């Protein structure tokens, strides 16, 4: 299969991928451009998720490349990052759906589950037979999840009783399972459970009126004495440090997705600038427009370089929390600048969906905040470089 590099990958970082990875990336790109791009604005505007694309999307292998139980050969973390970029370049809501399904839900089971749990759940989730969600954030606990979780888990014989609430949980209006993180009422440690969403006492209510990632079906979850068997407790989740292992993987994925959002907006602005005529020539021929395009491309190129390196560190087994935190903080900040410049290039046309930048401009706000705000990630980096924790 012939691979056509992205012109927005100005330094050609994709060239470092293995041939089988380039083939997989081509298949994913083709699917996103043929199946998602034509419908993305319509579903985004209606705040609906296109459920009909789930199985075809997963047939590209996008949820199968990480775990030995699901992959057919080795795929690098750099390749998986480029896959997140490709999805977000077309639509960040689809990338977020996969980030929840494969990165967070499957990631929690892959990192914290027993071999039996991994073998049972991961293949079915990779095929789309089971849709997952990830329940960590709570109405009163976001950045302080390590200490501030209020959801409790109480042992009762061979069962656990879960009580509490969660907020902003992606996929949760239609997931089959949700990985719920709760404090053990006995010792206060954070532990995880695979919770079937049809369990008695489990309720998910859609969150509406969003201005960002409108296709993503976020929900408030209420756990009213939900009983789950001990066989659904993630056996290798013994403290928040284990939860953090999952977040370390997905935080770098959000950095990659933010580059994709920036590229999507930049490519739309570049196409617009070559067609829009003002003062007798395409606006792409004006100095100020070229300056903005160059600034966009500089942000994109620097961010790709950072993402490639942090993913190489993951492959080498040396990535730490502060590495993924710096990538997420830097790349989402540069994304925010880039989508604003891309919208600026389009003038008033930049605020409507018709011209390609508005959806990316709006979606950037969610990526900027979730998986750790810029400020919290800065403090993780600051603790690493100074040796002093400045958290409240």
From TrEMBL:
<dbReference type="Pfam" id="PF00441">
    <property type="entry name" value="Acyl-CoA_dh_1"/>
</dbReference>
<feature type="domain" description="Acyl-CoA dehydrogenase/oxidase C-terminal">
    <location>
        <begin position="245"/>
        <end position="385"/>
    </location>
</feature>
<dbReference type="GO" id="GO:0050660">
    <property type="term" value="F:flavin adenine dinucleotide binding"/>
</dbReference>
<dbReference type="InterPro" id="IPR009100">
    <property type="entry name" value="AcylCoA_DH/oxidase_NM_dom_sf"/>
</dbReference>
<protein>
    <submittedName>
        <fullName>Glutaryl-CoA dehydrogenase</fullName>
        <ecNumber>1.3.8.6</ecNumber>
    </submittedName>
</protein>
<feature type="domain" description="Acyl-CoA oxidase/dehydrogenase middle">
    <location>
        <begin position="133"/>
        <end position="226"/>
    </location>
</feature>
<dbReference type="InterPro" id="IPR013786">
    <property type="entry name" value="AcylCoA_DH/ox_N"/>
</dbReference>
<dbReference type="InterPro" id="IPR045008">
    <property type="entry name" value="ACX4-like"/>
</dbReference>
<dbReference type="GO" id="GO:0006635">
    <property type="term" value="P:fatty acid beta-oxidation"/>
</dbReference>
<keyword id="KW-0560">Oxidoreductase</keyword>
<dbReference type="InterPro" id="IPR009075">
    <property type="entry name" value="AcylCo_DH/oxidase_C"/>
</dbReference>
<dbReference type="Pfam" id="PF02770">
    <property type="entry name" value="Acyl-CoA_dh_M"/>
</dbReference>
<dbReference type="InterPro" id="IPR006091">
    <property type="entry name" value="Acyl-CoA_Oxase/DH_mid-dom"/>
</dbReference>
<dbReference type="InterPro" id="IPR006089">
    <property type="entry name" value="Acyl-CoA_DH_CS"/>
</dbReference>
<dbReference type="InterPro" id="IPR046373">
    <property type="entry name" value="Acyl-CoA_Oxase/DH_mid-dom_sf"/>
</dbReference>
<dbReference type="InterPro" id="IPR036250">
    <property type="entry name" value="AcylCo_DH-like_C"/>
</dbReference>
<dbReference type="GO" id="GO:0004361">
    <property type="term" value="F:glutaryl-CoA dehydrogenase activity"/>
</dbReference>
<dbReference type="Pfam" id="PF02771">
    <property type="entry name" value="Acyl-CoA_dh_N"/>
</dbReference>
<feature type="domain" description="Acyl-CoA dehydrogenase/oxidase N-terminal">
    <location>
        <begin position="26"/>
        <end position="129"/>
    </location>
</feature>
<dbReference type="InterPro" id="IPR037069">
    <property type="entry name" value="AcylCoA_DH/ox_N_sf"/>
</dbReference>
<comment type="similarity">
    <text>Belongs to the acyl-CoA dehydrogenase family.</text>
</comment>
<keyword id="KW-0274">FAD</keyword>
<keyword id="KW-0285">Flavoprotein</keyword>
